[in-house]
Amino acid sequence: MHLPGNPDYSIFMEESRHPENFELLKAGEDFLDCLARGQGVEGLLKKAHQYLHMPIHVLDPSFQLIKSFGGDRLDDPRWREYENKGTISDDQLERLKQSGFMEKVQTRREPQIDSSYPGMKVIGCDIIGQSRILGRLGVWCTQSCGDREFRIVRLLINALSAEMQKRQSSVLDLARQSDYFLNKILSQKLTDPETISGLAKRYEILIAPAMMLLILQPQPGREGQSTPEHLKRKIASLRSMLMTTALGQSVISVVDSRGWETPEKREELLKSVPHVRIGFSRVFRSVADILEAYRQATAALELNNGQVNPGSYEDVFFQDLILLSSKTLKRPESLCSPWMLKLYENDRESGNEYVKTLETFILHSGNMKKTADVLNIHYNTMKYRMDMIRKIAEREFNTHIELFKAYLSILVLKDKDLK
Questions:
Q1: Which H or E run contains 255?
Q2: Which of 18, 252, 298, 256 is nearest to 158 (CA)?
């Protein structure tokens, strides 16, 4: 039988040729056949399931699900978590650490039974190759497990080690290359499409038909609790992630947009990566648009003032458009309506909050009650403020065009105050 030139195959051959009975010899030969035919991790799990008759999964070193097999009818919350979320939860990871199971697996490098969870037992073992962890194997004990099952699991671990060593170097190289590629575009502000496309080809960057860029930043006051490297490890579990890098205190990731079409999907991300602010760009289709997508995601973070998280550029693009226009002028307030400048000056001199009141009124479609609730003031106070606003501005604010002009002016004045 022809096998690829990998030194670990000789070790695997030696172990599989000295079993205690014919079944183990047959299992070893079947695993070798899967390797020789290039059937990958999935082929090895299918073959192991034929001998073990128990659900099996393989995770990568960061606990992201690589492949699973045989668990269609398995009713266990941990298994469902892997299948639905594609990764282990922080609570489950903490439980494994506290039970001592992870330490046992790492020090003995032999299959161990995790019986700390009040439910199904799991045979677990790290998959080691070239002195590093390549993955993590879990076999779910839906039936009794004895010496026979452990011997087959050992054979499977050796086979998975040989298979994953073939792939690991290329996978790691591609991850490093995509990190370098994304960082180079953002830090050097590359905009030339030909240069960017050339880099993408050189580094074999994975490109989806439609992509989005997202920025993750620690929430104010939690900067020390979520380092960029910590956030990078967290979002490594995203199935749709194409490339990611760290820039300053931010983590920037390009994802396949098909996983993030709705606000509900984005909320799921926030639950899995708590205590961060997230900004999403619009959908883009070319790596040449990455820098603009980064600008959009940054605007989504900055312009919503932390009121919406995750923030989407779709929600702030109008404000962004106005601010981009005002930056070309020496006196951006010249874009404002004169009557709004009067209102603004009145606030500065008297300490009133008429501009903020009018902005909230516009954002809530002219609904007085909702505006009063948001501002946490009495309805009569709200009514008095609107009367004063109309008097100072000499406008009724009862047409769409007047409200539009007012809102445009407010955006320009807010940007002027920030500067």
A1: strand 250-256
A2: 18
What value does the mean pLDDT take over residues 42-71? 88
pLDDT, one tens digit per residue, over 324-350 is 776 666 676 777 888 888 898 989 888
What torsion do the CA atoms of 357, 359, 363, 369 make, to the nearest 10 degrees? 10
C-alpha distances in Å from residue 86, one per residue of 57, 68, 101, 238: 11, 10, 21, 8
Exposed e or buried b for every residue in 77-106, given b needs 16+ CB within 10 A?
ebbebbeebbbbeeebeebbeeeebbebbe
- In this structure, what DSSP letter does residue 332 have? G
- 268: Cβ contacts below 8 Å, ≥ 6 apart: none
Q: Answer yes or no: are the C-beta atoms of 145 and 121 closer than 8 Å.
A: yes
Looking at residue 86, the DSSP 8-state letter turns out to be S
- Cis preceding linkage at 77, omega within 30: no
Residue 190, φ and ψ in degrees, nearest 5: -70, 130
| Residue at token pair 């699973």 | 68
Q: Report the SS3 class of residue 226.
A: coil
Q: Are 249 and 218 in contact (CB under 8 A)?
A: yes
- Distances from the Cα of 225 to the Cα of 90, 229, 309, 387, angstroms: 15, 11, 19, 48
Return the closest-CA partner of residue 279 out of 191, 212, 181, 208.
212
Q: Which residue has the higher pLDDT, 386 or 60?
A: 386
pLDDT at 105: 79
Torsion of CA 386, 389, 391, 392, to 10 degrees: 170
pLDDT band at 1 (very low <50, low <70, confident <90, very high): very low
